[in-house]
Amino acid sequence: MTIKQGMKKPTLNFFKNICAVLSVQHIIIVLVTLLLSSCYTSKGVNYLQSSDQEMTIRLRPTEYGVQPNDVLSVKVQSRDPDQVAYFNNSTVENRNLQANPASLFLTGYTVDKEGSIDLAIVGKVQVQDMTIEEIRDFVQAEIDKFLLNAVVSVKLTSFKVSVLGDVKTPGTTYIYNTQATIFEALSAAGDLNISGKRKNVKLIRQKGDKSIVVDLDLTSPEIIRSPYYFLHPNDVLYVETSKENLFQKNLGVFSLVLSAISTTILVLSFNSN
Question: Where is the Polysaccharide export protein N-terminal domain (predicted)?
């Protein structure tokens, strides 16, 4: 097909039409707008925001009641090791045993589906919904029937929480303490990424055969008063990614496309002149 002289190619006409509508200045304005809209403000990322210089907030710690599948460490101590040998798991007493979640699970006392643990000599002990302190006092009273001057210690060795979503190191964390707060769990996960949604962190808590899902606002000081501020074993925290971050991830693609268009317009404008 022969193109008559004076007739312009359709492709060239198309890009020249774009040049008539767009300019490099327009594209620069669009790029600057995209960059500014992708910036994060301190209001969206700071925790416990308040205009007060000093605050006093009363905590509301809740005592955890032991549930089925929890693992307890129960030790009986005495000046005479032979006296307590029958009550203690010999594997637990092995000093060469490395303390890790796997060994604690294997050597501890798992609460069965009826809510009981089976202790040597003492027998079945119903512990469901009892606090660690209540279990210790009960076992101490039972041990006192057999031994004099023995001391019982009880610990929850299966205290773990999972942190998922937009955090630096998502995963499961074991808490070697009697209690832990939501901020301690997030700290163990390396803190939220800058793009994590702090106003809507989801907490999933197992309650019997049901799951409770709660939305928590970490930017408000009121989170400390929440009954969910102190975590329970097997809690799951999920951090959503903010919409601003989704836009920011695509910003590079937008910038690349606009840069290509601006370059094309410059070349065509130069050729047309």
Answer: 61-156
